């Protein structure tokens, strides 16, 4: 039965206020929990969105790989391998020496030339490797690499959209690879300019270095637009959910503390998940004959921005949690606040007494 004031106005029963208070507590809890659960998803989506849409950030992330010794050695090895597959240097050497012998060198000279066929072929192969290595190790390669990254960023987006002409190739079986054609073309031009006329025989190649394989890649390719939209909006939605949860809570400082703990926990899960995913991806790449050093460089460049963002979010969430705890209704922070106020009053009193004494 409702109570009335002296003027006859009805006063809502206490039970009604408690019910409404519990309802707001449930709403606040749901908002904070949903926001905390979506926080790592939002961070990953924002990272993916940046990778797909921000060319400058993409270049900044992967440009240092041009100076990585493991990456340079791998590019050199793969380029030389393609050249060797397209041009039989041993056969070319044999044909050239046979041509010299056919001109009439005499039996002794012919025998000597036959004996050095293998050595000449090996020396020529070594010289080709040296030339390709010089190209990859040159200062100009870093500039070429940076420019190629800008082009590759466009090609990456095209690959996710299913463009068959993309430099980065996403196959139907879930494998992802990089076409060697641009690097082989550059090596061919360098060899021709240095007098290796046989390099003209190197045809265009469609060789792809498989660097990863996952059944999820086709799904990512199909959901490219969703990733871009989610990366742009989901972080703001997460902030709005958590802020709304704290705002509607009956005890806002308590809600802030638990929100900080929840976000820190879910972002910690993201950091752990990155380590696990990195290990799984590394195993898949290494099984594709990519050296471990190259795998470490690639994954380091790819995952470091997301890992750093997650750690920063954890620190921010813990700071928010501590603020909520200090300002909350618990006995220990209240005692600490009392001690701090007492100490501050003591300091002010000492300052005032010294000021009075000096007068």
Characteristics of this structure?
359 residues; 13 helices; mainly alpha; 77% helix; two-stranded antiparallel sheet; 3-stranded antiparallel beta sheet; 2 domains; 5 strands
Structure explained in plain terms:
- There is one protein chain.
- This protein has helices at residues 14-53, 55-62, 69-86, 89-102, 107-115, 117-137, 139-160, 181-193, 217-222, 224-248, 252-286, 292-327, 331-358; strands at 3-4, 10-11, 168-170, 175-179, 208-213.
- By secondary structure, it is mostly helical.
- The chain has two domains: 15-54 and 222-338; 65-218, no CATH class.
- The strands form two sheets. Strands 3-4-5 form a three-stranded antiparallel β-sheet. A two-stranded antiparallel ribbon has the order 1-2.
- The protein is elongated.
- The protein starts with a strand and ends with a helix.
Low-confidence stretches: none
Order of helices and strands: EEHHHHHHHEEHEHHHHH
Give the overall shape.
elongated
Order of the strands making up the biggest sheet:
3-4-5
State the domain count.
Answer: 2
Number of strands: 5
- The amount of helix comes to over 70%
Number of helices: 13
- Biggest pleated sheet: 3 strands, antiparallel
Mean pLDDT: 77
The secondary-structure class comes to mainly alpha
Beginning-to-end CA distance, first to last residue: 68 Å
Task: Work out the oligomeric state of the chains in this entry.
Answer: single chain
Strand content: 5-15%
What is the rounded Rg? 34 Å
Give a short synopsis of this structure.
This protein is mainly alpha-helical.
